[in-house]
Amino acid sequence: MEFLRPKRPSLSLDLAPLIDVVFQLLIFFMLSSSFLNPALKLSLPRATIHDSKVPQHIVVSIDQAGNVFVNRVQVQMADLKTQLERRISQDSKKSVHIRGDKEMPYKYFVQVMDFARQAGAKQVNIVHEETR
């Protein structure tokens, strides 16, 4: 003699809407976090790793007052692009190294980076001092 049990209803949950909501939230947070402006005050010029093995052929230095030097020769900001074009055309690596005073205004750094890219630099490096 067999006893018949009533079948239990299956407790399955449809996960498709839950997965859709999770992906929507993921996309929302990824997009909203990429538009945030950094709100940190930074002092950037030091790093623990210092690689001085690479020879520096084209070095652009910017002092605190915004004076620009190309390989220790002072140039005006208006003439910087032509100076860099001439030097980059002679450099096989097409790289420019930028040295900036830690107290200089950030706009000078951006201008020099822009001029270096316009002049044909394939690689722009930032020179820093080693932290001891």
How would you summarize the topology of this molecule?
Layout: H1 16-34, E1 46-47, E2 59-62, E3 68-70, E4 73-75, H2 80-90, E5 95-100, H3 106-118, E6 123-127, E7 129-130
Parallel strand pairs: 1-7, 2-5, 5-6
Antiparallel strand pairs: 2-3, 3-4
Helix pairs in contact: 2-3
Provide structural commentary.
- The protein is an alpha/beta fold and 132 residues long.
- 33% of the residues lie in helices and 19% in strands.
- The protein has three helices and seven strands.
- The chain has a five-stranded mixed sheet, covered by helices on one side. The chain has a two-stranded parallel sheet with strand order 1-7.
- Helix 2 crosses helix 3.
- The radius of gyration is 28 Å and the shape is rod-shaped.
Mean pLDDT: 79
State the helix count.
Answer: 3
Going by helix content, strand content and strand pairing, the class is alpha/beta
Helix content: 25-40%
CATH topology of the domain at 51-130: Nucleotidyltransferase, domain 5
Output the radius of gyration: 28 Å
The CATH C-level class name of the domain at 51-130: Alpha Beta
For the largest beta sheet, what order do the strands appear in spatially? 4-3-2-5-6
| DSSP summary, beta strand count | 7
Low-confidence stretches: none
Strand residue percentage: 15-25%
Largest sheet: 5 strands, mixed
- From the coordinates shown, what is the CATH architecture of the domain at 51-130? 2-Layer Sandwich
Terminal Cα span:
87 Å
Choose one word for the global shape. rod-shaped
